[in-house]
């Protein structure tokens, strides 16, 4: 359970309640509760709703972690294409 989810539960808010107060969709609240990190402006807005610091709710990411995550995601997306190309090359041998 993420800190955001804990604070929302303790405040007696539903995802819809938090979404309305933050000016976002309920699905965005769900994504944030499942680990997606919102942009800094939205982090501030959500922290303000709970009267706490951003760091109390959202874990600080090491910038290199975000870069590595992005690179890994891109590599995973390319892998099926790479396999198809290799299969095609093998078929000509």
Features:
93 residues; 434 Repressor (Amino-terminal Domain); 2 domains; mainly alpha; elongated
Describe this structure in words.
The protein is an all-alpha fold. It folds into 2 domains: 1-59, Orthogonal Bundle (434 Repressor (Amino-terminal Domain)), CATH 1.10.260.40; 61-93. The chain is built from 6 helices and no strands. Helix 2 (15-22) packs across helix 3. The longest helix has 29 residues, at 63-91.
Number of helices: 6
Low-confidence stretches: none
CATH topology of the largest domain, by name, is 434 Repressor (Amino-terminal Domain)
The dominant shape is elongated
Structural class: mainly alpha
Average pLDDT, all residues? 87
Strand segment count: 0
Percent of residues in helical segments?
over 70%
CATH level 4 superfamily of the largest domain: lambda repressor-like DNA-binding domains
Order of helices and strands: HHHHHH
Number of domains: 2
Through-space gap between termini: 53 Å
Task: Walk me through the topology.
Blueprint lengths: L2 H8 L4 H8 L3 H8 L6 H10 L4 H4 L5 H29 L2
Helix pairs in contact: 2-3
State the gist of this model:
The protein is mainly alpha-helical and 93 residues long.
């Amino acid at each position: 359970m993420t800190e955001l989810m804990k604070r929302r539960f303790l405040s007696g808010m539903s995802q819809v309640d938090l979404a309305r107060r933050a000016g976002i969709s309920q699905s965005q609240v769900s994504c944030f509760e499942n680990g997606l990190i919102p942009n800094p402006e939205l982090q501030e807005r959500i922290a303000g709703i709970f009267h706490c610091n951003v760091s109390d709710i959202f874990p600080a990411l090491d910038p290199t972690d975000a870069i590595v995550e992005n690179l890994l995601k891109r590599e995973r997306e390319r892998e099926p294409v790479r396999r198809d190309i290799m299969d095609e090359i093998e078929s000509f041998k």
